[in-house]
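User: Modeling request: complex.
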Amino acid sequence: MRRLIGHELRLALRHPADSAAALLFFIIAGTLFPFALGPGPTTLAAIAAGVVWVCALLAALLPLDRLFGADFEDGTLDLLLLSGLPAYGVAFAKTAAHWLTTGLPLLLISAPLAIMLRMPASHLALLFITLLPGTMLLSLIGSLAAAITLGARRAAVLMPLITLPLMIPTLIFGASAVTSPHPAAALYMLAAMLLFALPLAPLAAGAALRAAAE
Amino acid sequence: MLRDVGFRLAPSGVLILRGPNGTGKSTLLRALAGLTPLAAGTLLWAGANALADLAEHAARIAWLGHLDAVKPALTAAEHVPVAALAAVGLERYADLPARLLSAGQKRRLAIARVAASERLLWLLDEPTTGLDTTSIMQFTALCEAHRQAGGMIIASTHTPLELSNTETLNL
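Assistant: Request completed. Predicted assembly structure:
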């Protein structure tokens, strides 16, 4: 499993453009809001948390259709399923690689974007704390959707249509916790959802991978 | 898709699957690997149901599909240990990204991965596609070495392989 994650990270390093594209999309999409709404500090501060959250979700979706797609097309998926690792292990390793190459960089770069959107400095810590499970949940649910749509004709369109509705609860709790005076309840909810998705999403994604390989 | 298929393979045995395109040679190989579930019938390994534990079954198999599963961005040596590259004549290209290799060289890389796998049963789908005569001879030598060590091979192929004592299954 660790070898597979390492292998995926090495592939991502050879193709830094994929991860960089998600980061650039995140920054550019976030930058559009001040242009559309005007640079008024109170307006921007009010929407900053929501904007960062939504842009992070959309940006993390970008590399997902290649997550299993490339392996499916070049025959690597068969080898992965025959590597002796159970299918859910393969799905979990790929999910972890997606988070490390997309979710984690987005998390780190969210602070400068939030500051640019006039988010009060006191909210930054909470933004980090909520985006951490938030990006993980997106990787888990996103890879599940990527596995389900694998081999489908409009996979790149279908995948976000499955992922984004499932991310709504995470978005509600995550974005509201950043500005809420009592964030604890929402944070517990995020943690609960993460604990729920952590074993179940790779299990389902693994079954979908097996079905796609038939 | 396939009906009434039956065979038995002893250690060091080689089974060649023959038949026109579309008769299910690849499907049978995928079923033997546990990738495609069997609609009916059983696959026994040393008398026990081989497909009961797919991960355990996978650990017996080296798979060469019709696709090479070669990543263009990784070098040949990152796909296969350097020691195994010599057997397919690729040692000179060890540090070359695989995207610079020709179709035949990629096939040889995939064959080297099978040979380096140390798995007991090789499942090969048209293994010699795109190979030149020298490479086919190298491939045959690898197959013989695998048999000497007690390994088994099931291969679908249109071009006859120069292996002795092979069994043929016509589909």
